[in-house]
Amino acid sequence: xxxxxxxxxxxxxxxxxxxxxxxxxxxxxxxxxxxxxxxxxxxxxxxxxxxxxxxxxxxxxxxxxxxxxxxxxxxxxxxxxxxxxxxxxxxxxxxxxxxxxxxxxxxxxxxxxxxxxxxxxxxxxxxxxxxxxxxxxxxxxxxxxxxxxxxxxxxxxxxxxxxxxxxxxxxxxxxxxxxxxxxxxxxxxxxxxxxxxxxxxxxxxxxxxxxxxxxxxxxxxxxxxxxxxxxxxxxxxxxxxxxxxxxxxxxxxxxxxxxxxxxxxxxxxxxxxxxxxxxxxxxxxxxxxxxxxxxxxxxxxxxxxxxxxxxxxxxxxxxxxxxxxxxxxxxxxxxxxxxxxxxxxxxxxxxxxxxxxxxxxxxxxxxxxxxxxxxxxxxxxxxxxxxxxxxxxxxxxxxxxxxxx
Length: 405
Prior knowledge:
This protein is α+β, with helices and mostly antiparallel strands. It has eleven helices and 20 strands. It has helices at 2-11, 66-70, 72-81, 97-104, 120-125, 158-165, 191-205, 240-248, 277-290, 341-352, 375-384, and strands at residues 13-16, 40-43, 55-60, 87-93, 112-115, 134-135, 137-141, 147-151, 180-181, 211-217, 224-228, 232-238, 255-256, 266-272, 293-309, 326-330, 333-339, 356-358, 366-371, 387-403. The model is unreliable at 1-23 and 173-190 (pLDDT under 50).
């Protein structure tokens, strides 16, 4: 479906700059709210579906959005404390019903969960064409249909809810933090962010350049990261261990780094359009050449987990034609969208510094919600998707980096 392909290009574009991003909506506090259109009432549907004369906590979310999922417990607690027959908590997505139900089987929403598969509600509250620019997004609408507050779910406090239900006009929330961009962002207060973003978009659109790399020691810029899917990444003020883990998927526990490089911070920009192993090897060679280090490898034995498919019917195949793979953190969970089993296990190995080894050859794309507080939780999550996970001592490589002089 053309709409899915076009939107997914931006759904997985994450702006992570000091935890800040900027949400742009067309509605303003004090204005009449646009129409909320609903195609399907999925969970906790009220007997009275007429939204007229209701106080509404409208929550825009999506199954792939980590901050959206992370906000669910907070919103559930608010609903428990502030609950009335004429107060509706509505969590609205624009995704297919079946995809939403998958998430509801694993995440407990107390709100009224709905979807507008036409995307019209997102357009009504957004720019009328592409829809909203960022989620999660929470909007409070009173019984007269007036917007009283706009912000993030974690900014929706008891004080804000009390003022809202007392009929007060609530001040607009501070600049949004920890949100996921779903269309190109216009960060009006930061021209540097816009220029960096434009540079990444230009690199992404350059079809002739499939591999690109620059690296230099950080000169005092704050730590930040921008990424487009899994293909392009810009990192500022990251350690060599962090770069190895996030770019090359190699855990620091399997590395020995010279003391001189332990505290050094680097800026890296890379593009790996093909995503194959040779490109990653080329990237590593360029990195080590830039900082004058050489790599030695020695075999070691480590405790890890071997993974195979036990019940394929429990795997949740990605719906639609997904253009990009997306990974998103949600506090104690990590969401994977359009990931193979192998790539999912690779990412989980980074998180826990424990190797997860896939013994199969399935290259299909799946969606996963994995609890990541501990190895035990990861194992149980994987088993819930029909995967067999067994502890095993396995061969690995320890990387030793030494000065090239």
